[in-house]
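Hey, quick one: can you model this chain's 3D structure?
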Amino acid sequence: MTLQETLVETLPLALDAVLTIALTTIGLEAELSSLHSYGSNTTLALWFGFMGVLALYAGLALVGRERLLPRLRANA
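Sure thing. Here's the predicted structure for all 76 residues.
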């Protein structure tokens, strides 16, 4: 197996892992911002909460479960 073949196999896996971690982190940060701004600005808190749920769903369900997990199982 050459270096190019190895990169072709591992690069999509690594990118999906980074994307899953990034979206999950952004979602958690948005949820924390929602909790911190709930007392002062309810509209902003709801916006942060919605965006946090959306980012968590995208990170964990769409990328993590639908793309990353099947690739990990296929490479194992």
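One thing worth noting: The chain has a mean pLDDT of 93.
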